[in-house]
Write a structure and sequence with these properties.
Layout lengths: L5 E6 L9 H5 L4 E4 L2 E4 L3 E3 L2 H9 L5 E5 L5 E3 L3
Antiparallel strand pairs: 1-4, 1-5, 2-3, 5-6
């Protein structure tokens, strides 16, 4: 059953250093393109593992936003 909450995943290409941590953790959600991480899909059903991946980014380049509210869920300050 799909989640009611939808999240938008973006990667700040100027901040991303292409470490590949996100790809290693969730290759189904992230890919490296020309040395920079990109989400496989820009909008996904809510998935708490994505918050952990975003928080583990060494440059905090991954942002997760709840679409319905615009609330930034990750990275957490």
């Amino acid at each position: 059953m799909p989640s009611e909450k939808r999240w938008r995943i973006t990667v700040d290409e100027t901040a991303c250093i292409g470490s590949g941590v996100c790809v290693g953790d969730r290759p189904d959600r992230f890919q490296l393109v020309h040395g920079t991480s990109q989400p496989v899909e820009g909008e996904i059903d809510a998935d708490d593992e994505i918050l952990a991946v975003a928080d583990s980014c060494p440059r905090e380049a991954i942002q997760v936003v709840e679409i319905s509210t615009g609330t930034v869920l990750a990275p957490v300050d």
